[in-house]
Input
Amino acid sequence: MPFDILKKEVVTLLQQPKKSVDDRLTEVCVLLQERIGYYDWVGFYFANHDTKTLHLEAFAGEPTDHTEIPFGKGICGQVAESNANFVVPDVKAQNNYIACSIYVKAEIVIPLFKDGINMGQIDIDSHTADPFSPEDEEFLVWVNAEVAKIL
Ligand code: SME
Output
């Protein structure tokens, strides 16, 4: 997986000060979704800590109905509370899971921290079973750290 090449492109997309943060995040989602074959849907959810809900800020892939997710609900909502990476090799094995598409077989959600606060997360859905490796996790932690710099 050419994560090193992608990292350079992510940095370039995030360093476009004339564009809004949402536009830059959407471009990052499109890059990852187009270039990594098993990333079928890529999105950033951001947390509202007052209402304890996650809100979809940017994405690439099929539109989803789940633009707002309460903390605790689904894989995303659990990560809002646990502050921990959540790799799901088989979504059917999860009880607390929100299905976005019948084609999704696996999911990875990585929390995004700024100054130690869980600001939200990057969420990837895959139509491939068990596709995510520790390299994906490491890459997505890196992506979130880069995004945190522009928040
Ligand atoms: N599957 C997620 C919901 C978000 S969609 O994948 C876009 C979950 O269980 O939280």
